[in-house]
TrEMBL record:
GO terms for biological process: methylation. Transmembrane segments: none annotated. It holds the Pfam family Methyltransf_25. This is Class I SAM-dependent methyltransferase. Keywords: Methyltransferase, Transferase. Residues 63-157 form the Methyltransferase domain. PANTHER family: TRANS-ACONITATE 2-METHYLTRANSFERASE-RELATED. One of its GO terms (molecular function) is methyltransferase activity.
C-alpha cells in the first residue's frame, strides 16, 4: 500500500494488508476439500440456534447469516420460516452452500464477498447470526463489525453468535489485541472470555450467554465444547 493515509478506512486497509501478507491460509482452499475432518462440515444447525427458535427467543423474519460456510444454519433457518440472506467471503463455501440448499429445497439468498464492502444498506434484519466469523476478524475490524450490526439490525433486533473460548479445545488464541499486530497473525482465530464479549457488545442487552453444549454425533444438531454462544438484543 503506497497511498497516503487520509481516512480511518485507509488505516484499516493498511492493517488488513499487514495481516494478510503474513498469512498462507486461504478459505477457498479450506472449503475445496469437503471430506476434510472439520467439526462443522455437517449439515446440522447449531444447538443454541435451535434452542432460540424452539423457545421463541427470536422473532421469525429477515435474518442475515454472517460467515455462513456450507450453509447449514442458513438452510435450517429457511426451512423454519425465515427469509435468509447468507454471506461468506469464500466462493467455494457459497458453491457448496447453494448445492446443499437445493438438495434440501431451502430458499436462501447466498452472497459472496467481504462483509464490510458488500452493499447492505437497504436491508434491515430482525436477526443477525454469526457462527464462527467473529473470531477470525482482526481487532481493528471489530469497529467495522459493530458499525455493520448497528446499520443492518432493526431497533430491538437480535444478534447471536458462537465464537472460540480463549484457550479452548477447538483453538481460541490467547493473544492480546496488540500482540496480533506484533506477530502479524491471529494464530488461527482469537479466543474470547465472557468479560471480553461483554465489553465488545456493551451497547447491546444480554439475553443469554453460555458455553455451547457438547452434543453426540448421532443427534440432529451441532454442538461442541470450546465455543461461546451468546444472544444479544439491540437497544433502542
Amino acid at each position: 500500500m503506497s497511498k497516503m493515509l487520509t481516512t480511518v478506512e485507509d488505516v484499516f486497509t493498511m492493517l488488513d494488508t499487514m495481516l494478510q501478507d503474513n498469512r498462507s491460509f486461504n478459505w477457498d482452499t479450506f472449503y475445496s476439500n469437503r471430506e476434510r475432518n472439520v467439526p462443522f462440515f455437517v449439515n446440522k444447525p447449531d444447538e443454541n440456534l435451535v434452542h432460540y427458535l424452539e423457545h421463541q427467543m427470536v422473532p421469525k423474519g429477515n435474518i442475515l447469516d454472517l460467515g455462513c460456510g456450507p450453509g447449514r444454519n442458513a438452510i435450517y433457518l429457511a426451512k423454519n420460516g425465515f427469509t435468509v440472506d447468507a454471506l461468506d467471503s469464500s466462493q467455494e463455501a457459497i458453491v457448496w452452500a447453494r448445492e446443499q440448499a437445493a438438495e434440501n429445497e431451502a430458499a436462501v439468498n447466498f452472497l459472496q464477498g467481504n462483509m464490510f464492502q458488500l452493499e447492505l444498506k437497504n436491508k434491515f434484519y430482525d436477526v443477525v447470526y454469526d457462527s464462527g466469523c467473529l473470531h477470525h476478524i482482526a481487532p481493528h475490524r471489530r469497529i467495522s463489525y459493530l458499525e455493520l450490526l448497528n446499520k443492518v439490525l432493526k431497533p430491538k433486533g437480535f444478534y447471536a453468535l458462537t465464537c472460540f473460548v480463549e484457550g479452548g479445545d477447538l483453538g481460541g488464541s490467547e493473544l492480546s489485541d496488540i500482540e496480533v499486530y506484533r506477530e502479524r497473525s491471529l494464530h488461527g482465530g482469537l479466543g474470547f472470555t465472557e468479560e471480553k464479549l461483554k465489553n465488545i457488545f456493551k451497547n447491546f442487552k444480554i439475553i443469554q450467554m453460555r458455553r455451547m453444549i457438547q452434543v453426540p454425533d448421532t443427534e440432529p444438531v451441532f454442538g461442541v465444547s470450546g465455543l461461546w454462544t451468546a444472544l444479544f438484543q439491540k437497544k433502542e
